[in-house]
Fold this protein.
Amino acid sequence: MRSLLLGLSLAAVAAAGGGGYWLGLGRPDLAVLAATLPFLADDIVSSPAPTTAAAAGTDASAEPPDVAAAAGPVAYYRDPDGKPFYSAGPTRTADGRDYVPVPVGSDGTAAAPEPANTATAAEAAARKVLYYRNPMGLPDTSPVPKKDSMGMDYIPVYNGPEEDAGIVRISPGRVQRTGVRTEVVERRSVSRPLRVPGVVELDERRISVVTTRADAFVEEVADVTTGGAVGKGAPLARLYSPEMAAAGAQLVIELKSGAPKAGGGARLRLENLDVPEAAIREIERTGKVPRSMVWTAPQDGVVLERSAVRGMMAKAGDVLFRLADISTVWVVADVPESQVADVRLGSAAAIIPTSRPGTTLEGVVDLVYPQVAAATRSVRVRIAVDNRDGLLLPGMYADVAIDGGSAAPVVAVPNEAILDSGSRRVVIFDRGEGRFEPRAVEVGTRGELFTEIAEGVAEGDRVVVGANFLIDAESNLKAALATLAAPAGEGEVRP
């Protein structure tokens, strides 16, 4: 890809200058191009100079004497008179004088780094060249070394297991310049908070009503109103019931006649009428039946409903008071159908009341309702929250963050290590010594920072987490070129 971009850039400059010369603004265009496109600097300074007559624009048998005298690789050639004319290869002026070679680094251009994605010279000598590919990425190959129309050498393609396996080589200098970062794969819990809206509701198990099991008259009502708090055993109303009074009189008779200790059938009848235990013990102690009896609160809580009115007659079963204990409440959240699989019983949840943005309460998921709402395609999730401070009130809205993801540690990589094209997910492995291998993987739960890898990565592997898209792009280019068939005969070029 870099060679392709370089070739296009050189072609454009050559077209503008004409005749193999480059026009500049007092500095060589190669240096300007290298400074403007730093990622092409390697190719700019390391591209081999053409030696053919067509590329040099003169007789190939007469090599300019300054070429041999140049120390190190030649970056470009400049006009011998210092005029702003430059050439990529050896050439001469109109009057036959040689252009002066400019070594790499002598004018501020970058020094030639180690070629990327190629083997070292020793490795290259020990391996067989299969064919040569176009340096600009064009779909043509050659069985023998050659140059393209701009004088650039075709790139050799070697045999060997690394090329077959798709391993990409990158020089240490380029790894540092491109910001390649790696990280060791570990087993960890993948956390993915689900942020959904919720509504505070009463715990159904903490609601109770105050009623009678016989017709009664309300003689007096305590100073209790709807919304007020009451404690367990606090008086609520005084009632008179003929049926309860008759049962109390029967208990007194049984006690005076030497009936069994428990009071016999009369006491049992009072208990069945739900007469308070304190009232029954008072009858047994005094031997008298009170005119009316006090009904008390069965639990701590707030008054949700007050129906008792002084002087009214309450039928058996009529609700006089409704109480609710709000020390523990429910927050019911609507989780999208696509994310409900990440919610587990016992998962921790953070509750932020909309009325108190800076307050966070902790809760636990204790039920996932077994039904999907047809209108919203969501599932109700119930979260039990300790509310002894009374910060949450029934009907209040809240923001809910449920701790989803995997509970047990799994093999996971940072999210940035995964290249997702939509149809495949790729992770770049660091094989050491500048070698990198792209590999397709199967992903599991995706969290805020890490993603579970179900297949393709093992604990202890080292993967690329920075600049991996550059390596993947180069790997794709290499794979595309590798699919080109090797030439079958001498001098044959095939796409």
